[in-house]
Amino acid sequence: MLLRDIDWGEGIPASFHEQRSLSERLYRKQGIDTQALLGHATQAQTDRYNDVRGKEWITIAC
Fold first, then answer.
1. CA–CA distance from 31 to each of 26, 36, 57 (Å)?
2. Contacts 24+ apart (CB under 8 A), 14-20
3. How many whole angstroms separate alpha carbon 27 and alpha carbon 33?
4. Which of 13, 16, 22, 36 is most buried, by CB atoms within 10 Å?
5. With contact defined as beta carbons under 8 Å apart, do 62 and 55 qualify?
6. Residue (of 12, 20, 14, 11) closest to 51 by Cα position
7. Residue 61 banded pLDDT, cuts 50, 70, 90
8. What's the pTM?
9. pLDDT digits (tens, 9 = 90+) for 3-25
10. How far apart are CA 22 and CA 25, in angstroms?
11. How far is CA 10 from the centre of its chain?
């Protein structure tokens, strides 16, 4: 199946950089050197990927 064949319904698929940001945050949480993993020259560049940009999960009580 190709990406273009996926029915996203009403949703919008995550962009490449959103996926990369999620990967950076998950790997960083595991203690992996994400600067090296992402191939960035500076830690500041990598830190930009660690920002959830207000799209973090919100836990609610039922």
1. 9, 12, 21
2. 17/49, 18/55, 20/49
3. 8
4. 22
5. no
6. 20
7. confident
8. 0.67
9. 778 787 887 888 888 889 889 99
10. 5
11. 21
